[in-house]
Amino acid sequence: MKKFEEEYEKYREKIDQELLQIKVPEELAYFRESLLYPLKGKGKRIRPVLVILSGTSLGVELNQVLPAAVAIEILHTFTLVHDDIMDGDEKRRGLPTVHKKWNVNTGILSGDGLLSISFAKLVEKGYNNTVEITKHFNDTLLKICEGQKRDINFEDRTDITTEEYLEMVGLKTGELLGLSCSLGAMIAQVEESIVNSLYKFGKTLGQAFQIQDDLLELESSEDKMGKSLGSDFAGKKKTYPLVKMLGSVSEEEKKKILTFLTKNSYNRVDILEKFKEYNVIEEGEKLVRRLMDESLNYLTKCPRETEEKMKKIVTKISERDH
Hints:
With about 325 residues, the protein is mostly helical. The protein has a single domain, classed as Farnesyl Diphosphate Synthase (Orthogonal Bundle), CATH 1.10.600. It has helices at about 1-20, 30-35, 45-55, 60-85, 100, 105-120, 130-155, 160-190, 190-220, 220-225, 230-235, 240-245, 250-265, 270-275, 280-295, 305-320, and strands at about 90, 95. The chain has a two-stranded antiparallel ribbon with strand order 1-2. The chain is globular and about 60 Å long.
């Protein structure tokens, strides 16, 4: 695992370097600073590293797969910039969010600009199957938007089922990880069964990743997570622990719980104790493990090297604390 960690860190640093070298036209004088600003935040870079690992393990040279990996990270950053505006978050990756540093209009425009840059980076190498790759990239973006809209719609509901929640995060979070894992395979132009297996692996892992995030945001701190915490409860966001808790109580009790969470949205200690009362954190941890195990089952059709790399990613994610 130590060798893999070194490999992961090497790729992460490479992505960071590439992001800092992104060029924009000189005429974007009013736009340049806010457009490039969110790319300076230090992220885990899981998604672009997945692109690199899937591609290189299937025989693609690093310099061939790297632009697509960078495109994935820029696409992800675009979603975060707009997500922060919708949620009213003030901190992301250890920095003030774009709309907090400037204003909402600047945040919207910066996100739009990042989306444009991500598509430009994706087609930079002119892959033989660029049309198919671009279509997959675009389809994923639309599914992410659908997931975000479902997440917003859930804010006014207290009867969300676990199945509905999993479908939502499968779109909002899972689709991008599915794209990340399958994109390297598409660039390698391997058989479709491998591409599909990696997509399903990534999507399922993405569901586990999001539930894990929901739990970490209860148990961790803003410094560790590098982003605002508490806005989910203030904005009535339905995280997995909350969905499970509301699903186990009466309508009257639901109202009391939601009132408590709204009033204490930034009181991490009391909120954590409230969730522990209903045993939903342990249930969430079990579901994360189940989904991670399920994701591994999709790797059986992949070459051994690819399977081993992806298994190590699952181990790395399972051990994260932020």
